[in-house]
Design brief:
This protein is an all-alpha fold. 56% of the residues lie in helices and 0% in strands. It has helices spanning 14-18, 29-35, 37-51, 61-65, 73-96, 102-119, 121-130. Helix 2 (29-35) crosses helix 3 (37-51).
Length: 149
Amino acid sequence: MVSKFVRGISENCTFCELARHDEHNRETPLHLFYDCEIVDRIRENFFAWLLLGTGERNPTRQEIFVTFERDNNFFNRVMTLVSKLYLFIIWQCKVRKTLPTLNLLKFSVINELQVIAYLSNDLKLGIKESRIRRLQNLDVNILALELEQ
């Protein structure tokens, strides 16, 4: 993506290069945030962890990039925000030239939600009504957060 605007920047996926994959994938937004083998595994595990016990399935590509449109409006608002935080954290890893990890994603998303919830009563209500158990107690010290593999 950046290679189109800056000379000397590789067109190859930053994460594939960092992981030293034999296959050189062109870094498009779709590849970087969704199709990259490294990101795909982390994304699937992150959303499976987050949505455990909700009866909800992992988000589709459209939900990740655009918005959630499921039955529960509170769930949709919270998950749309979570998906944008996911994209932001993946972008930060790309810019820093570091591989994203599941624990980094969990920690960063929960930490960002804590800050936003502190400032927004609407988000606090949305989280409560979303039925996403992993987000119900954002007041818990982030270091005590369960970060299982």
